[in-house]
Amino acid sequence: MATPGRGRRPRHVVVQEASRILAVAFLLNWIWEAIHAAAYVESTGPFLYRLRHCLPMAETDALWTLALWAIVTGAIQRPYSAWRLPTVAALGAVSAVAVERVALADGRWTYNALMPIVPIVAVGLWPVAQMAILPAITVWLARARPNAPAGE
Fold this sequence. Notes:
The chain has 152 residues and is mainly alpha-helical. It contains 5 helices and 2 strands. It has one domain.
């Protein structure tokens, strides 16, 4: 149930926030992907090559971040709840573990010696950290608007 005085946000506000999330998520994930790509057998090469090679992954990560935001915002029903960012981070980490396990089992990619492994789940630390940290930062940055009233 919505908090009194705080009904649904207008559609254009939601669309603007979603657009900001896509843009910020793409940029942050593109940089992260290009930096940690050296930890994958399939992505070794000069940094400029990795920048180009990581474009599709950054696009996917941006859509993934948007989906996390939509799920959390819809589930909590209070878009500015204190639980919003930690929930996005937790869902991002859990979903990253699932994606990494499937991708490794299917042979989509292989880690090299530069990838630290999370012991219990046996997946790479960098992709799990990426999807725990960057979606939360993205949602926070996308929410911050110039000239927004304090407390919003």
